[in-house]
Design a protein that fits this description.
Blueprint: E1 3-9, E2 13-20, E3 23-27, H1 32-41, E4 48-50, H2 56-59, H3 62-68, E5 73-76, E6 86-87, E7 93-96, E8 99-105, E9 114-120, E10 123-129, E11 132-133, E12 136-137, H4 145-156, E13 163-166, H5 171-181, H6 186-200, E14 208-209, H7 210-216, H8 225-235, H9 242-255
Parallel strand pairs: 3-4, 4-5, 5-6, 10-13
Antiparallel strand pairs: 1-2, 2-3, 7-8, 8-9, 9-10, 11-12, 13-14
């Protein structure tokens, strides 16, 4: 049995907290204070930390958490943070608080980026940091557009029912771009209404699923005829390879 909850940080970050009857872990604690506040309020002890990549808004709280709690396992990619004591790469499995996570390398946003995939109780869960967002994807800071496309394509082969726990609440702004990219896609408008209703009640739009995202996330629709036609009309493209479609989409969003 697993319980997964968001801990809000900064203006739009989610630090994901997972608990079982064997303990508690957090994913990408960029800020220690909201984590400590949550744990204190719920009388919980922190047993482990998972890190997807080196950006400060994902790692900034590690040091203070280690000072306050006796944490034996800080798990993340090599050369990512000085306090990581279990380094993992593609295909590794890690066992923590009774959970077995598979490690998937997803370079693009950063070169060291990894995701943690979990199957438990007939459900699958993906902690993907800044690789996939609901209705969008992360900026390509260190890798290439092809790397990011390939990483997202790799993740999209996971079961459609997989719950996606990304690290930011960017959904409405991402949907605004999705409407520009694919104006005839009614699923985008349906998702926008859903998210506005959730936010009106202070409910996160995350987790999402691959089944949902494949209907309205432009970066998962690069091989779809409607998306290709939209990019042809916008940019007079002649190269309609999915990697080029992805690259043009990401450049377009970066320019806004």
């Amino acid at each position: 049995m697993i319980q997964i909850e968001p801990v809000k940080a900064f203006t739009d970050n989610y630090i994901w907290l997972a608990r079982t009857n064997e303990g508690v872990l957090v994913v990408d604690p960029g800020d220690s204070k909201p984590v400590i506040d949550f744990l204190t309020k719920n009388n919980l002890h922190l047993d482990g930390i998972l890190i997807t990549h080196h950006h400060f808004d994902h790692t900034g709280g590690i040091e203070e958490l280690l000072k306050k709690y006796s944490i034996s396992e800080v798990i993340g990619p090599p050369n990512c943070h000085k306090d990581i004591n279990i380094e993992v790469t593609e295909g590794d499995s890690v066992n923590i608080i009774g959970l077995n996570f598979k490690v998937i390398e997803v370079p693009g946003h950063t070169l060291d980026h990894i995701a943690f995939y979990l199957e438990i109780d007939a459900e699958s869960h993906l902690f993907c940091g800044d690789t996939i967002f609901s209705s969008g994807c992360g900026r390509v800071f260190e890798g290439t557009f092809k790397q990011m496309h390939d990483s997202i394509s790799k993740l999209s082969k996971l079961p459609d029912s997989t719950k996606i726990y990304c690290a930011h609440e960017y959904t409405l702004s991402n949907l605004a771009f999705a409407k520009l990219a694919e104006p005839n896609n009614k699923k985008i408008l349906e998702r926008e209404i859903e998210v506005k209703n959730l936010q009106a009640r202070d409910i996160p739009s995350i987790p999402t699923t691959f089944a949902k995202e494949k209907e309205f996330n432009p970066f998962l629709r690069c091989a779809e005829k409607d998306m290709i036609d939209s990019l042809i009309n916008k940019f007079n493209l002649t190269n309609t390879d999915p990697v080029n479609i992805f690259s043009e989409l990401r450049r377009w969003k970066d320019s806004l």
